[in-house]
Amino acid sequence: MSFEYIQVDKGEHVTTVTLNRPERMNALHPYAQIELHQTFNEFQQDPEQWVAIITGAGDKAFCAGNDLKFQAEHGAAKVRELRKNAPSGFGGLHRRLRCNKPIIAAVNGLALGGGFEIVLSCDIVIAAQRAFFGLPEPRVGLLAAAGGVHRLPRQIPHHVAMGVILAGKRLTAEQAHHYGLVNEVVSADKLMETANDWANEIMLGAPLSIQASKEAVTLGLGMPLEHAVDANFPTMMLMQTSEDLIEGPKAFAEKRKPKWKGR
Questions:
Q1: What is the DSSP-derived secondary structure letter of residue 61?
Q2: Ramachandran class of 13: left when φ > 0, alpha when ψ lies in -120 to 50, beta otherwise
Q3: Which of 5, 72, 87, 98 has a Cα-to-Cα distance from 36 of 20 to 30 A?
Q4: CATH number of 6-202, picked from 3.90.226.10, 2.60.40.1120, 3.40.190.10, 3.30.1330.40
Q5: pLDDT exceeds 70 at position 223
């Protein structure tokens, strides 16, 4: 499937999604949101795709958030109507709470507003040294309703998060790394190489084991600990009857790398 506003490249087991509106700092209008919704639906459902990477085109912006020019030209009502076709939320991710496959953000430049909220929806974050992060929505009469006001205080210290949310403070890549929001900061020319290295490291684990682990973290965080540690999460149960559960110990005993099938 070809798209107008994003680029999708499928490798053997890795899907790379590039926001492709550099003339608008990769800001997203509803038509781009629909493409992202469709793309991540397909990724989530494809048993041969195990990890996704999302990045932005150009050397300035990962994503500048919502395309406010489009909203000003077409009106908020039109935008709301179009967004009904992308129920998984901003970037196809902020409401996609049950995707158990890992998603890596490769942040090549500014990540503001909804762009930052895409980052907050990802599992691993690699940032170029020039990247920075912010939630400037109140300065245009909005709020970071695509998860920013909820996810950010869960991921970094409360008062730091409130400075970003209320005062519009921006975090540099190094600051974001210091607060644990970013896994690794690299030079821009090493960004995609590093993101793919992380994807390859993840894929050293059995796909269903990785998915079961992410699911257990996601669902377990919303449960009392005494319930979470005894819970039988769906993907964990699937993993326990998989071919890979046999392959892993067998490969270990034979002193070779396992050949994962994802089933």
A1: E
A2: alpha
A3: 72
A4: 3.90.226.10
A5: yes
> Cβ distance 37 to 87 under 8 Å?
yes
Pair type for strands 51-56 and 103-107: parallel
Say if residue 110's pLDDT is above 80: yes
Residue labelled with tokens 């919303």: 222
The rounded percent of the chain whose pLDDT value lies above 70 is 100
Ordered by start, the domain boundaries in the chain are 6-202, 207-253
Instruction: Confirm whether 137 is a catalytic residue.
Output: yes
**Could you tell me the CA-to-CA distances from 230 to 28, 81, 112 in Å, in that order?**
41, 43, 39
pLDDT at 18 exceeding the cut of 90: yes
Confidence band of 86 (pLDDT split at 50, 70, 90): confident
- CA 219 to CA 145: how far, in whole Å? 21
pLDDT at 1: 66
Determine if the pTM surpasses 0.85: yes
Count of CB atoms within 10 A of residue 241's CB? 10
Tell the burial category of 39 from Cβ atoms under 10 Å away from its Cβ (0-12, 13-18, 19+). buried
Collect all residues with Cβ–Cβ distance below 8 Å to 141 and sequence separation of at least 6: none
Closest CA to 208 of 242, 231, 232, 250: 242
* pLDDT, tens only, 228-263: 999 999 999 989 999 999 999 999 999 999 999 988
Give the residue from 67, 80, 54 showing the smallest Cα distance to 21: 67
CA distance 256 to 211: 23
Catalytic choice (12, 23, 81, 137): 137
